[in-house]
Undecaprenyl-phosphate glucose phosphotransferase
Amino acid sequence: MFKTYHVFLNELLFVADGLMTILSMWFAWNLKFNSKLISHAAHDPFQTYVPIMLFGMAAFWLAGVISGLYRTTQVRAVWGYALNAFKAAVLGLLLFMSALYFGGFVHFSREVLAIFVVTYICSVVGVRIVLLMVLRIIRRRNNNQKIILLVGHNSSVDKLIDELENHPVFGYRILGYLSTGNDQQISVPCLGTTDVLHVILQKNFIDHVVIALSREDILATNQITAVCDSLGVQSLILPDFLDVLPAKPRFESISGLPLIDTRYVPLDDAINAAIKRTFDLLCGTLGLIVLFPLFGLIALCVRLSSPGPIFFVQERVGKNKKTFKMYKFRSMSYDPSVNTGGWTVANDPRRTKFGSFLRRTSLDELPQFWNVIKGDMSIIGPRPERPEFVDKFRKDIPKYMVKHRVRPGITGWAQVNGWRGDTSISSRVEHDLYYIENWTFIFDVKIFIMTIFKGMSGAGAY
């Protein structure tokens, strides 16, 4: 019953998204050509847009399926829907624009397309917000709930119980647990031992049996799953090794063999990576164009401040531990015998007067927009280090090398929180790992805005 209900909800969302696609296109066309709010020249009648709209609906449906908008799940947050809706919009837009190009629809208005994408994202997220609000009301009245029976007790059970009890909106209720005889008392009612599992399942309507056996009792799993299968009850295994897994583990398989990624990196997802790369290219290109006059002024001041090259080029370690040449405006006197030291520190005698200003304002980092265009770096990400420092830190700091799973950035979560320059490497890595494991496009936008207002200067900027 519950599974059928959730399938129905996803089918309802599927139909609603199709209608939202058409309505968003209709709204965009009318806002552009009928509202008199936007100037326009002669245009084709609305009827000519109908076949394109139908294809757009199919393209955005496909994009929604690929982006996970219709995955059956009991637990979903608004931000999760918003992120998937954005992914679907980006992917759908790429499919749609490709079809327009190859189909020869050169007359299609770009303003209509832009308005449509914004309206589509808002409508898709809005539909799901309404759905979540309705489900919240229903579930708080103890309706639309799934019943869970726990079997055993391991190190992960208490966390599961706390999460479900503190978030009734998830729609789960724990009936109780069955003891293996070796486990401790927990905060839910004990219904007996595992010997009575068959009887409990027959007398009660239970949606999920969560097997939470310790490492010592894991051999009993086959017996428990066999009982669940004989009565058609879904069984789930709660691992007893969550302490070695990240907050959001990723599950993969090879020829049907299940594998758990112990360090989930959202940017390993092709769609996430495409979104981030698109953002990098747009910001990098716009940055070079808009800041070009400033580049010229800084270059002139660097040349006048001291003899030597305008740019300082240094080898850094990037994604997948590959080295690249990173560019900066030179902020120190040009003397190879002096410039080959360690990190800069406060009152560093190697700096020029203008170089001190560049370092305080982080304007010396601006040439790295070119690194972004080349694909060596991202706008947002962990700061790259020199190979000799990487070799040292990888030995001293656990998980340090995880930062090389993604492209390094001009600015990052560690930098906007003050961990830059001659500060704690451990704290910097801790922030870098948090960013890597919790990346979202919204998170990047947040860091970007924080960089503008607080990240371009600070105690570590010397």
User: Anything to note?
Assistant: The radius of gyration is 28 Å. Confidence is low (pLDDT under 50) at residues 1-5. The first helix runs from residue 2 to 33.
